[in-house]
Amino acid sequence: MEINTLPISASTRGKLISTGYTSLSSLSSISPSRLAQDLRIQESEAVEILKVASVNCGVGNSDGTRAIVAGAQTAWDMLHEEEFARRITTSCEEFDQILGGGISLKEVTEFGGVPGIGKTQMGIQLAVNVQIPVDYGGLGGKAIYIDTEGSFMVERALQIAEACVEDLLDNGPARKDFRASQPNLSAKNLLRDIFYFRVCSYTEQIALVNYLEKFISEHKEVKAIIVDSVTFHFRQDFQDMALRTRLLSNMALKLMQLAKKFNLAVVLMNQVTTKYCDGSFRLTLALGDSWSHTCTNRVILYWEGNERYAYMDKSPSLPSASAPYAVTSKGIRSSASNCKRIKLMQA
Amino acid sequence: MGLLKHLERDFPIIDSDFQRFCASHGILSDCFDFTQFHLILALAIYPHAVEDFLFHDLYVLAAFAEAQSTSERLKQGITQVLTIIDGQHQTWFNGMELLENHQRRKRVLRTGCVGLDLLLEGGLCQGQLTELVGPSSSGKTQVCLQAASNVAKDIGGVVFIDTGNSVSPKRIVHLVNNILDPTPGEAKNRMFERIMRCILCHSVFNIFSLFNVLHELEANLRLQSEEARVQLIIIDSISSLITPILGSGSHGHALMISVGILLKKLANEYDIAVLVTNHMVGRDGGTLKPALGDSWKSIPNVRLLLSRVSGDNKCSMSIIKHPSVCARKQKMR
Q: What residues does the RecA family profile domain cover (chain B) (predicted)?
């Protein structure tokens, strides 16, 4: 194995190669002080290099009893794991249905749509719903809300949280004593468990995504990361589009990794843009073609007449389908009940 | 430690006498740090040392050796060094041997997508790197999952390297149920479990961990037993690992090419079919082209373009590059 494939900085790599350390085995039996001397670097740096090299070097020696790739899972094991997987509900039955029962953990789901379609509402709703206690069929987790546009309204979040608590108490387990034993279930507590980050530039956004791994390993209860919106800072002041693609795809991989490693859902909000296609302009989600590959699932929110619809655009396991939903004072709800209310009001 | 000195440890015939003899004929014996496993690297840095040995007229060398008192030992030493050097490169094949090797060891794996198998005249070839290119939601992952299920059913081991958390066991169950005999029973359940156990998934989120996985795989492939042999490696998608490093200096480029070379090496040496997916990027003027640029183009043996008619569930597939099949198009579901 060559030095080239080690995750070390370009300058260090250059020094290693120019002093003749081109293979991992040449690093395997050398002392840090000798290396530091040869490379004219600090000894601590040399220790770091050797650490990286030894991690990568240990890979080759196996005894044959181990699996062919360490850390791999068979589809059989994954299937059994998935049987116990729970999902985050959107509070709208039809919406959940096209998502296969709700937002799934370990995946990155992207929502996109025109302004005012309810992306932020959906974000807040999910941040609240992820906290529904296990006894009520939820996950009992916490949420990280990354706000890049400054559109998170705390009053609105309180409203949605109150409605959520109300619904739970109405529909949840009916036993009185049970309800009494759930003193934590209040809108205030729901708000307390949303970790809110306000991000003002794309540099901050990338730094935050890099920091999240540390943050989440200290807060293991986090089950959802919501980024509203992932697009905002990447749509302005970007001259070098190649750099943008690189940064975005790197960030997407980091988010994927978080989703898998900590078993949580990542929800990204995206804006729309126009695209010239077949002689006409059409609306598509922003950030370009490369970005469209990076998410596991993609849901497009759109208007049809006076009703809001969600369309499952991309998913490895679910068929394309659409469903109506509504944004009410209580948050995201089924469209049917909303229509009824309008009719009642008219009558 | 010099080249010959190093070899002396393993092969007693190359003793100090022999080394002195070599040195007297201008064969450098003391100039580089050399291990058997890194001849290629050594060649790159000190090509003259090995060349010295290979370029020397061996008859002249042997004649000189005759004149020495310890001629027998010296001649043995020369032969020994030459066999060591021979052992470093792959064996030479002539056309007939290649053909036989191809027919005996390289199988064609059916993917289970009727259209794709027809198009490729059988399916994915072992020893080749096949690439699927297509825009978002054109069915690349679906083809991968389908191929994984079908190969697991027909032959055996599949390694699925996933970068987008898109391996959905439920979807695999669905696909496996489609290809299995519909009558339920004990045999079917056992078959089902065997198939599911044959598919090995690994999540990879950066290029360096991909290298780790592949190197580990390479080390373990030598030891694998015949019945659990890995037949197919899928990387979905390789472009999402490479895009973040591409363009930031030449190193990213070097990594991309070494991934390609490593995959092809695995495919060839261990008779594995490799399937990777790549995405599309917009070109000036709104048309799409495969990502990763021109130098990646030459890496895959077979390139297939997937496309989907918008608003329609039909996907179509066409060959961009194939060593033996001419370009054409095929509809698939």
A: 105-280
* CB < 8 Å to A10, chain B: 249, 251
CATH 3.40.50.300 residue ranges of chain A are: 77-346
Pick from B205, B211, B220: CB nearest A256 = B205
User: Taking the mean position of all CA atoms in its chain, how far away is CA B78?
Assistant: 34
Side chain identity, residue A275: K
Cα B311 to Cα B295: distance, rounded to the nearest angstrom: 34
How many angstroms from the chain centroid is the CA of residue B113? 24
Whether B244 and A246 lie within 8 Å, measured CB to CB? yes
Q: What is the spatial distance between Cα B197 and Cα B1, in angstroms, rounded to a whole number?
A: 48
- In 3-state terms, what secondary structure has residue A8? coil
| Neighbouring-strand partners of residue B326 | none
For residues B108 and B126, the answer to whether their CB atoms sit within 8 Å is yes
Distance from CA of A177 to the nearest CA of B (A): 39
Give the ipTM: 0.79
Fold classified for A3-60: DNA polymerase; domain 1 (1.10.150)
| Whether B282 and A259 lie within 8 Å, measured CB to CB | no
pLDDT value at residue A176? 52
User: What are the structural domains of chain B?
Assistant: 3-88 (no CATH), 98-332 (3.40.50.300)
Q: Which residue shows structure tokens 């729309």?
A: A272
Q: Is B288 helix (H, G, I), strand (E, B) or coil?
A: strand
The minimal CB distance from B217 to the residues A69, A246, A247 is found for A69
Q: To probe the interface with A, which of B168, B172, B239, B263 has the most A CB atoms within 10 Å?
A: B168
Answer whether B77's CB lies under 8 Å from B13's CB: yes
Which of B157, B247, B286 comes nearest A246 by C-beta? B247
To which residue do tokens 């116990």 refer?
Answer: A84
Sequence-distant (≥ 6) Cβ neighbours of residue B285 within 8 angstroms: none
Q: Does domain A77-346 have CATH number 3.40.50.300?
A: yes
The CA distance from A103 to the nearest CA of chain B, in Å, is: 14
Which pLDDT score is estimated for A80? 86
- Quick check: A82 and B208 CB within 8 A? no
Burial class (CB in 10 A: 0-12, 13-18, 19+), B253: middle
> Is the distance from CB of A295 to CB of A278 less than 8 angstroms?
no
Q: How far apart are alpha carbons B316 and B11 in whole angstroms?
A: 60
Task: Give every residue of chain B whose pLDDT is below 70, as ranges.
Answer: 1-62, 65-71, 85-91, 227, 248, 284-286, 310-313, 327-333
- Mutate which of B149, B198, B202, B216 to disrupt the A interface (most A C-beta within 10 Å)? B216
CA atoms lying within 13 Å on the CB side of residue A151: 18
Residues of CATH 1.10.150 domain(s) within chain A?
Answer: 3-60
Q: State the CB neighbour count (10 A cutoff) for residue A219.
A: 15
Which pLDDT value is given to residue B8?
60
Q: Is the Cβ pair A64, B220 closer than 8 Å?
A: yes
CB contact burial B258-292 (16+ within 10 A = b; e otherwise): bbbebbbebbbebbbbbbbbbbbbeeeeeebebbb
